[in-house]
Design a protein that fits this description.
4 helices, 104 residues, mainly alpha, 74% helix
């Protein structure tokens, strides 16, 4: 990979190299599979893109699972709370602060 320090910033020029290599290969009529096999920079870049996509997909799936478990836990807690509240009288609910006392 080629790097440059233009204007005091660290920049990675491998993307430009890969883009140039891909465009030149397509202009010459080289197929994608052949380009991947022969050009190391393109191959590395492509595999990095694929691994990033796979990691992103895996994180999204894990987040869906986490949210589903959280929703299930909240539903269980709500059901338990409603069950307990159904067993208590109005006075007991008022005493515990679950129901505001009405004006008398």
């Amino acid at each position: 990979m080629a790097y440059s320090y233009s204007r005091g910033y660290y920049t990675d020029n491998s993307g430009a190299e890969v883009a140039t290599a891909v465009l030149e290969a397509y202009a010459d009529g080289v197929e994608f599979e052949t380009l991947i096999k022969k050009n190391k920079a393109v191959r590395q870049f492509w595999y990095n893109i694929q691994s990033e996509r796979a990691a992103k997909f895996k994180r999204a799936e894990q987040e869906k699972i986490r949210l589903a478990k959280l929703a299930e836990k909240r539903a269980e807690e709500k059901a338990k709370r409603e069950e307990v509240m159904s067993k208590l009288s109005r006075e007991e609910l008022e005493a515990f602060g679950f129901v505001k006392k009405g004006k008398r």
